């Protein structure tokens, strides 16, 4: 069992990435009760935004330590622009429409964004190589980490803490809470709900961009359809943690990441389970976990009981 | 008002779409006559976008060069060849649709492809029913030619299917022999992607490696499209294996090797022709150093006959890897063109041209750019050459070429 610390760390890294993306689903759902299925693609465009900054804006051979902040900003800018644009032109006109209409719009938008990147971004038809911080790896006790993993393990808690303070302490954050509770009353009290909704989309975009940079640093490449699978996993994480709750999204992500990793590592070691273990069965076990959690706690791990929603 | 303008827009779009498709449809008489020459189409089916597309494009352009050469040299008088390439996205269902399209177009007299064995299994029946010849430059699963029970009772199910690549029965054995006897590896961690090609290759490697005296530390499977292998990597690290054998394509193995080396596991990854691609080295970077792959045939660059082909490929600035199957695609297309030359005289396509072309391809015998081209009674190539490549200073370097005798 001495691989356990390493496997837990693997799960934590993967789960933090899911959690960062899941924030976008949960923020938007909490405020407008919309499942933004195009969020996976916002994550993807964030990655391509960062790539653009590195290859087409900065001079060749810029050190990654200087380039990384610029890439984060560039990626976030692109992701926020797309997220806010999607809200303004695709979702806002449908705000009064039945719930199904914006959902279908989101799926359409997701396909459209994928195809636009696929067709118009230079060489996006193949995997694009993502610049690496260092090829160095670090040993922390019995745990071995790579620089991309280090990035996500530092970035995720910082982002999470910043978001927590923002929502709890700032004026805008309190307005967000009010809008989430009751948009109509909030508007009557003088809160500009449209602005709040835009901010929710924008924050989702920033977090998605951070996750996309982490993804690129970890796996060494990004591609036009990477948002689909990651988006689906992150959405699962958001539901697992209790959709609408930002801490739930992070927790859900980490639990999902751990579940996948541990399932890959240990299920096939259990006598009689050899056929049901290994890497290809990991998603199955992750979804089994989701079903079990939802049976016991339909509102998710940290979700509130909101019978009138969803 | 809004509804009316929508209606008009829809009408205009529909009319436009219908007109365009009508323009695209062909007369089904067999052969467009244009200025005294007949146009004959050679179909290509391969993944041209997304997964596996680097090697897929190599197939498309390999065929394109063969067709250009045939037109330039006027190899078949009265016939002008054209390439029609369809994208199967490495997806069996798309491959089957493409096969149906090719069969329906009477100008198509032969098809080169597909890249993936799993896709081929869904295309063979369609081509066989229509009697249209299909030559794959890259399929390696033994059952495609020799039937499901190829190990005990060989039988050929589809007489229109041929291939210029040799089979995994030889490739898996060749790799196992090299791993055990040359690399002196004794304990292997086996990973595959559960696809027809990957799982088949891994199984054959395992059988031969164990027979040679080696041990299998553990086995695991991944899904195509997976990106995170950290958990698997930890398992490999803990298993004490001195080699990882991967049955599958470069899309997953390039990430696996990167994460493996990043985690401090300094053992090489060994795979089949599915990961023998420059993209593999590009993505995995320095972490791919020392990794190995077997591939069919001998390196194209060492063949004098292929010099012109490589020069043409580079001159046209085609993307994709010609290295893996480009030469075989050229030879596959040439085999079809030569067969057509024996059937189509003076630009006249006989009504049973497709059937006759299948018979002609069976009799093929010529020196291709990647070695002699001829087919045995199952449709397999008689050229059983294989090569082991290793990544040395960021390039695939041939380390051993030869043939492997199964048995």
Automatic annotation (TrEMBL), chain A:
Membrane topology (UniProt): Multi-pass membrane protein
Highest taxon of source: Bacteria
UniProt keyword Plastid present: no
Family membership noted in the UniProt record: Belongs to the binding-protein-dependent transport system permease family. LivHM subfamily.
Entry protein name: Branched-chain amino acid ABC transporter permease
Compartment list: Cell membrane
Primary residence: membrane
CC annotations in GO: plasma membrane
Alphabetically ordered keywords of this record: Amino-acid transport, Cell inner membrane, Cell membrane, Membrane, Transmembrane, Transmembrane helix, Transport
InterPro entries in UniProt: ABC_BtuC-like (IPR037294), ABC_transp_permease (IPR001851), BCAA_transport_permease (IPR052157)
MF (Gene Ontology): L-isoleucine transmembrane transporter activity; L-leucine transmembrane transporter activity; L-phenylalanine transmembrane transporter activity; L-valine transmembrane transporter activity
Coiled coil: none
Segments passing through the bilayer: 12-35, 42-58, 64-86, 98-121, 148-167, 196-217, 237-259, 280-296
UniProt xrefs under Gene3D superfamilies: ABC transporter involved in vitamin B12 uptake, BtuC
UniProt-listed GO biological process terms: D-alanine transmembrane transport; L-alanine transport; L-isoleucine import across plasma membrane
């Amino acid at each position: 069992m001495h691989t356990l610390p390493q496997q837990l760390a693997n799960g934590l890294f993967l789960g933090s990435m899911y959690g960062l993306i899941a924030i976008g689903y949960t923020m938007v759902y909490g405020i407008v009760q919309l499942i933004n299925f195009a969020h996976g693609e916002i994550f993807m465009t964030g990655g391509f935004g960062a790539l653009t900054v590195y290859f087409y804006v900065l001079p060749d051979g810029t050190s990654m330590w200087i380039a990384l902040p610029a890439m984060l900003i560039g990626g976030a800018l692109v992701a926020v622009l797309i997220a806010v644009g999607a809200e303004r032109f695709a979702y806002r006109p449908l705000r009064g429409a039945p719930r199904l209409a914006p959902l279908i719009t989101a799926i359409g938008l997701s396909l459209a964004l994928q195809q636009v990147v696929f067709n118009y971004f230079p060489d996006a038809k193949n995997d694009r190589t993502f610049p690496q911080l260092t090829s160095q790896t670090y040993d922390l006790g019995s745990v071995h980490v790579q620089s991309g993993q280090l990035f996500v393990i530092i970035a995720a808690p910082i982002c999470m803490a910043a978001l927590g303070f923002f929502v709890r302490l700032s004026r805008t954050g309190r307005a967000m809470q009010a809008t989430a509770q009751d948009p109509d009353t909030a508007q009557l009290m003088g809160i500009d709900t449209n602005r709040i909704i835009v901010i929710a989309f924008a924050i989702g975009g920033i977090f998605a961009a951070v996750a996309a940079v982490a993804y690129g640093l970890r796996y060494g490449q990004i591609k036009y359809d990477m948002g689909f699978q990651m988006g689906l996993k992150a959405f699962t994480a958001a539901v697992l943690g209790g959709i609408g709750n930002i801490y739930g999204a992070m927790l859900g992500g980490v639990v999902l990441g751990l579940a996948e990793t541990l399932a890959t590592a240990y299920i096939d070691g259990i006598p009689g389970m050899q056929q049901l273990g290994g890497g290809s069965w990991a998603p199955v076990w992750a979804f089994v976990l989701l079903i079990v959690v939802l049976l016991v706690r339909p509102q998710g791990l940290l979700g509130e009981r909101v019978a009138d929603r969803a | 008002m809004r509804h009316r303008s929508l209606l008009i827009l829809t009408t205009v779009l529909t009319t436009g779409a219908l007109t365009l498709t009508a323009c695209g449809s062909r007369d089904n008489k067999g052969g467009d006559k244009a200025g005294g020459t007949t146009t004959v189409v050679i179909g290509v089916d391969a993944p041209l976008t997304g997964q596996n597309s680097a090697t897929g494009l190599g197939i498309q352009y390999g065929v394109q060069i063969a067709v250009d050469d045939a037109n330039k040299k006027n190899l078949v008088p009265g016939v002008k060849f054209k390439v029609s390439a369809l994208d199967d996205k490495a997806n069996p269902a798309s491959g089957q649709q493409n096969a149906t399209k090719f069969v329906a177009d009477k100008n198509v007299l032969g098809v080169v492809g597909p890249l993936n064995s799993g896709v081929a299994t869904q295309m063979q029946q369609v081509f066989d029913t229509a009697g249209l010849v299909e030559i794959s430059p890259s399929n390696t699963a033994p059952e495609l030619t020799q039937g499901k029970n190829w190990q005990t009772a060989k039988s050929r199910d589809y007489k229109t299917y041929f291939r210029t690549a040799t089979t995994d029965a030889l490739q898996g054995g060749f790799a196992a022999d090299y791993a055990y006897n040359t690399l002196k590896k004794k304990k292997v961690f086996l990973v595959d992607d559960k696809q027809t090609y990957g799982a088949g290759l891994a199984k054959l490697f395992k059988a031969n490696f164990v027979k040679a005296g080696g041990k299998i530390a553990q086995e695991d499977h991944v899904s195509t499209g997976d990106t995170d292998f950290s958990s698997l990597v930890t398992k490999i690290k803990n298993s004490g294996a001195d080699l990882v054998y991967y049955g599958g394509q470069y899309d997953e193995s390039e990430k696996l090797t990167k994460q493996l080396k990043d985690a401090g596991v300094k053992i090489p990854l060994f795979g089949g022709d599915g990961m023998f691609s420059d993209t593999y080295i590009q993505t995995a970077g320095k972490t791919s150093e020392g990794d190995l792959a077997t591939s069919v045939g001998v390196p194209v660059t060492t063949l004098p006959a292929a010099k012109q082909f490589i020069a043409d490929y580079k001159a046209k600035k085609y993307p994709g890897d010609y290295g893996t199957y480009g030469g075989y695609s050229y030879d596959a297309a040439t085999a079809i063109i030569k067969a057509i030359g024996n059937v189509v005289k003076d630009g006249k396509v006989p009504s049973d041209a497709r059937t006759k072309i299948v018979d002609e391809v069976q009799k093929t015998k010529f020196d291709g750019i990647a070695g002699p081209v001829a087919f045995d009674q199952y449709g397999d190539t008689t050229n059983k050459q294989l090569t082991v490549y290793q990544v040395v200073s960021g390039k695939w370097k041939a380390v051993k070429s030869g043939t492997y005798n199964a048995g």
